[in-house]
Specification:
alpha/beta; eight-stranded parallel β-sheet; 8 strands; 42% helix; 12% strand; globular; binds zinc ion
């Protein structure tokens, strides 16, 4: 069922009003900020949420270090501080720390049972930071419930010897995304951000699940859709050009469509230009801070990333900009300042 008859979530009118006036700013990378905290296994499992087999909350005997989404439950103040730093750096939209909060992604950690709590807590933590920032400077902030692609693909076989094999089905993904999105809405998200899409079939399952969650919640949240171009051919991992990608997701009538991650801003530019030419909705771009170096770290300075993103704005290609892997509050502050002189892209009719 398509939920277009449902009432819109209250944030939509404010979002549209701000987007008509200026380029909206999305926040930066949660993962690289968490890395700088130097957390231990105990930080990930403390707080009575994860205590090994027999724990009444979410028993697991697997190590949890690196399960960043879990910190919304076990170190909520640390996550709230990161969100708040991005908000005060100029971000209008804060992404929840829930990129891997599906049963499919949490299976790696044996924490499928925690998925509902992870999403509710992830949204609540971002909401608190957003409301604190608004109390401080009077500007509205919005919480985007972040839905990652999972670590499995529905349209390509991971086994070169068995091209018909699939590691996950549409219905598996639809169920997992539905559980996630229900929690994100319950925790107070204003939007749903389906991001880092490498496989359009996965994204379609997330869109379908979002519609079902909206029907359960009785209101429709704006959807942001963000694909990722993974190689020099300018296609997603499942082989689509940006134009094909747009036509595959246009039925969702998304609040925005765009690209994130993978390539830095310089390599992303022609693909954002192509999307901008075909999609009659807002365009969103949040590149990494360049390409990772040999150690998997990102070297682009705030000024370098901001200069390139400002180029997108100067050319009239974008309505929402921010940063992905390797971007800090300094990057977001520099991006916000660099795009401020430019008008948002005019959305084609
Ligand atoms: Zn990224």
């Amino acid at each position: 069922m398509l939920p277009f008859a449902l009432p819109d979530a209250p944030a939509l009118a404010t979002l549209r009003a701000v987007a008509a006036q200026r380029i909206l700013i999305l926040d930066g990378a949660m993962g690289t900020m968490i890395q700088t905290l130097g957390l231990s296994e105990e930080d990930f499992t403390d707080g009575g949420h994860v205590h090994g087999p027999g724990c009444r909350h979410h028993p697991t005997d697997r190590p949890q270090k690196g399960n960043n989404d879990l910190l919304s439950l076990t170190r909520p103040e640390a996550i709230e501080d990161i969100h708040f730093a991005f908000a005060m750096a100029g971000a209008d939209i804060l992404e929840t720390n829930t990129f891997s909060s599906t049963t499919i992604a949490q299976a790696d950690y044996g924490l499928e049972s925690a998925v509902h709590d992870l999403n509710v807590a992830g949204a609540q933590v971002a909401r608190r930071a957003a409301d604190r920032a608004t109390a401080e400077d009077g500007r509205p902030r919005f919480v985007a419930g972040a839905v990652g692609p999972t670590n499995r693909t529905a349209s390509i076989s991971p086994d070169v010897n068995d091209p018909g094999y699939r590691a996950v089905s549409f219905d598996d993904l639809r169920t997992a995304y539905g559980q996630q999105i229900d929690g994100l809405i319950e925790g107070g998200s204003d939007l749903i951000l389906i991001e880092t899409i490498f496989d359009t079939l996965n994204a379609k399952a997330a869109i379908f699940a979002a519609f079902e969650s909206f029907a359960r919640a009785g209101r429709r949240l704006p959807i942001m859709i963000s694909g990722t171009i993974t190689d020099a051919s300018g296609r997603t991992l499942s082989g689509q050009t940006p134009t094909a990608f747009w036509h595959s997701v246009a039925h969702a009538r998304p609040f925005s469509v765009g690209l994130n991650c993978a390539l830095g801003a310089a390599a992303m530019r022609p693909h954002i230009a192509e999307l901008s030419g075909v999609a009659p909705t807002l365009i969103c771009a949040y590149p990494n801070a360049g390409l990772p170096n040999a150690f998997g770290q990102y070297d682009e300075t705030a000024e370098q990333t901001a200069e390139q993103v400002a180029g997108f704005a100067q050319e009239g290609l974008v309505n929402i900009v921010g940063g992905c892997c390797g971007t800090t509050p300094d990057h977001i502050r520099a991006i916000a300042e660099a795009v401020a002189p430019f008008a948002p892209r005019t959305v084609p009719a």
